[in-house]
Amino acid sequence: MGGISVEFVDIGLQVETRKTAILQNVTGSFKTNEICALMGPSGAGKTTLLHILAGRDVGGIVTGSVVYHDTNECGFVTQEDVIEPRLTCHEALTFYSQLRLAAGTTAEEIEKVVQNCMDDLGLNHVANVGVGGDALQGVAKTLSGGEKRRVSIGCSLVTNPSICFLDEPTSGLDAGMALEVMDALVVIARQDRTIVCSIHQPRWDIFKNFDKNYFLAHGILASCGTRKELFDFYLSEFPSLPKDMKEDNLADLYLDYLSHLSYTQAVDMGARFQQFAAANKLSGRRKRSTLSKKPAEFRQRVPLYMRCYLVFRAKALAHTVRRGDLRFVFMGGSVWLLVNGLAFSGGSTEDDSLYGAVLVLLLFLFFKGIPTMANCVVQRKQYLHDYSMGLYGAFEFWFAVSALDLLESFCGICLCYFSWCYISGLRTGPEHMIYGAATALGLGQAAVGMSQLNMFVFPNVTFVNAVYGGLVSFLMAYSGVYCDVNDLPSWLAWIPDINPYYYATSALMQNQFSGTDYGHTAAMESYFNYSKSECLLATWLVYFIFYTCFYLSLEYQMWLKDYSKMWKAFMKKFQKSAGVDVPDAAEKESLIEKTSTLGDASNTFKSAETKATTGHSTTVVQGPPITWYHIQYSITVQNKDGPAADGGKQEANELSSFAFQQKQKVILADCSGAVPSSTLCALMGPSGAGKTSLLHILGGKEMVGQVTGTLPDIDYEDTGFVWQEDILEPACTVRETLRFYADLKLPARTRAQFRTEVVQSVLEELGLAICSDNIVGGTSVLSTVKTLSGGQRRRVSIGCALVTNPSAVMLDEPTSGLDAGMSLEVMESMRNLVNSGRTMIASIHQPRIDIFKMFDQVIFLAKGHIAYAGPPTLDGMSPLFGHLFEGRDMSRLNSADLMLDHLSVVQTDAAEKLSEAYKEYNKKINKDEVVVYEKPPGYGVQDAHRRPSFYFRLKVLLGREWSVKVMSNHTYTRVAVLALWGIIFAMPYLRLSYDLKESEAFDTIRALYVLSLFQATLTSHAGAVHEHWVHQSRAEMKMKLYEAAEAYLSFFLWDSLIIVIPGSMVMTFEMWLMSSFQPAADKMFFGISVCCLEHLAYTTIAMFLIISIPNSKAVETVKALMYASLGCYTGFLIKIGDIPWVVRWLCYINPAKYAFAGLMINEFSGESVECDDEDGSSDGCAQGDDYVREYDADEDTTRLGDFLAVLALALTAFLLNLHTIMRTAKSSH
């Protein structure tokens, strides 16, 4: 080994939210040519220490010192692969090289660096393949998990750093991929580099490559050293252990032991280790009070202008070219022109019609920022990753995003504006076209900048949606269109002066009506406070202000992250005050310690209920054997002749050109097998082997493709299934979650007391009783707290399948994403369940030795073929795979790892040969020899009482939705925001009087229009909540917990009664009083009723878009176009009689039209209007009925008729939603 590369002394970290330090007095060193590991249970401080050593910001107060010896630069690889998914492997490495290599590096030198990096990491065969990822849509082929991980490592190695830190490099990878990645790191470490990585569950042949290991617990360095030194210390800790123990499972022994330590015990262990190290004179553990040497300076970076260009080019290539954002802009603009242009295509040149055309154009520009919000979440994540890596700064990202937005807006808005002018009859002279297009572009960019600023500042997605929708509506209300800005009170007069919408509206109005008679009317007076040029400059000035604030939000993202933590801490306190049991950090640590060991509760449910009353027995009996024969599963896929079709030799710019052909892809091929009764069986194999598909087929799940063969003859109603993803409602407690499943899965006539006993028994059986009243929490956008550990959440998911006391349970990746201790907890739970008589089958990726030994049977798959099925012993596997074990010390090695390594490189032809060899060897799998499983008389749930009724399921769902709505902070956020905006929108109309006057009539009409229009635009606050519910309900319907009808009914009912209707009612009531509408009780009641109904209708329509459109950006784009089109078809901006019949029907499906008409009738019908004459009489001026006819020209409706029309549209939207979710649920099954 070389000399010391990095030395750290007394590293500590303290944050305000924890009573104990995250790290405390951690000391050590790393040498050149070493590969070192940081290990410990979840929450031990591994990632935090890694970040501190790499010089990254972690928040809190950091103590101690870090010294780099002869280190040119540090590389850092985050746990998550945050790489632009639309770039190819070669492009991604080139992009990072261009930004990170020294200034003046030539293109040839960069290409050589990239090529060497791909050679070292084995990536040449995928050089021109798209990286891929969750956000990716439409790329022909994406990289495997191991390849993607190696690309992330390569992005840090392009600068040839002397030390590289990696956070969980094998996380989420199967055994073969993990070994590939670690082998690559070993090669890199031996090239005069130092590799330091945190890792959860290293197998022996990975663990043996580490030159030094650091084990942490509760932020304390519990022990460190070579394997030999650690093994000696472990034996000194436990003198009773046999002296002939091997080092093969040393990492597992340490992780198991550390996962059960309390904070005090960890401190004591750290002290004992220091004494052991001093007594044995272990190297590298001296402590010094001061270290004077500082890290070496980084090399000179690429110039700023070049970094800006490189980031812009990468963003443009990924988003504009490959994702097709520019095509998306043109498509959206074309749809808007088609829908709204026809309304003005009659060629009318009346000033009122032209006035409406300008306002419709403004509506389109007002809402242009909404589609941008769908990209901002991903963009923020990408920026934080690249910024923390030192790849580029805030200015470069800001420049790239701003320039790209400006380019897309220039193309889209100019096209829309020029086309709109010709369609609607607006002025088309060169001067007017240039002024108008420049103003429209400035306003559109201001809207986009405001959207991006919101998404990068606020941590809560629901809050962002509510704020942005309300802010746009607020600026619209003060733009001069819906109120006379000259009549605003003095304390509100400043709002138009900072409002880009007011300046843009004034510029466009002057551009159209300057020099005309209509331009001198009273209605246009407020638009001429400033000249056209001043308004244009002011619009662009506000745009620059928004983007400057956006830049500042990027520059101070670390401060905003602290603000986000403060927000979450506030919500914790709020939820505690609401009665939700949310433990703080110290309480959570204590809770996890107490529940880390499974309880000793009995393994059987109580049998208080009799079969005579419920048809259900809770006595555990012998589980069934599970047998299947000749299962074949294939799906139809698109055979894309893309850049990966020839091994990656095509040019990268051909990624967007594919030739589509359908073909059948075989997932499972002639699979037969048998799992004996009361057996714990593992399904294993590399990624893509068919484990999950086989498990789903055996579990009776409906598959997308074609399945043939003989399925298991078991009762699927008596079979539990645990999905890989924890589909748990984050706002419910553990007990409430299990009770919800018990209510829906137990027979209908089961008494409530018995359901309670079942839930309690499951809690005790899985060791969850001590945290039963804590909310589940999670990592979704709607979850602000996380109170359960990963192992506890996984056991809750298992418990949801156990409430019916099934005789067979199937689990998909039960240990995925868990550390060694949590994985062992979950597997011990499963072993106990099998010991109680159940049959269990689980797919699993990378089991450690003691987990692998827990299985009674293992089935290895390769390329859809069964390569081996039998006991997980050397004696069982040696006849077929003995060559893998020959000459190896199997006392140190895990046979599962060797099998997975071998199968991960097997091709389809070799897999078929392995399957044939297995079939020849194992003649016992024969249908004639199968033992038929017969149930004991009366066992299980009787068919007549198998499932609760529709009404009972609806009752249970209503109960859960009530708990979610009451306990979720998003409920209060949505209602509070609506109430706030109601006050703000009513402020411009405070001067209006209760008596109808001619001078105030138009302002009253505008106030009614604002009231009806904003009931639609403010529905954006519910987007994130609706998306979460759709995801949750689809997953639970896939489990067959309930049907779509009761799910949607329960959500719709409480969402309407608790949020939508109360929020709209408060907002309407505030506007009604402050705007001095008719105070009569019947008129106020009608106005509030019709507005609430309209808001409910548009909320339902917005939810329909989320249900029916899978792409979030498409949803936001459609919503923006819908909001921008509402004004055309209400009768306010253009008379309904002037709209061509081709699109006039859109008026009759527009709830805002009927709401506006009903409010007009309610306010003006039969009312007299005071004229502006000196005598104030009603003679000689328009009366209330005249105003009603003017804005509802071709209609002869009543107030009740408009109300019923809105009701009918709301009901139609509700039924359409119900039909859509039922259809999608059926198709997903």
From TrEMBL:
GO terms for cellular component: membrane. It is found in: Membrane. Residues 6-243, 653-888 form the ABC transporter domain. GO terms for molecular function: ABC-type transporter activity; ATP binding; ATP hydrolysis activity. It is a multi-pass membrane protein. Gene3D superfamilies: P-loop containing nucleotide triphosphate hydrolases. The chain crosses the membrane at residues 328-348, 354-377, 397-420, 462-481, 537-556, 975-994, 1006-1026, 1047-1073, 1085-1109, 1203-1222. Keywords: ATP-binding, Membrane, Nucleotide-binding, Transmembrane, Transmembrane helix, Transport. This is ABC transporter domain-containing protein. It comes from Cymbomonas tetramitiformis.
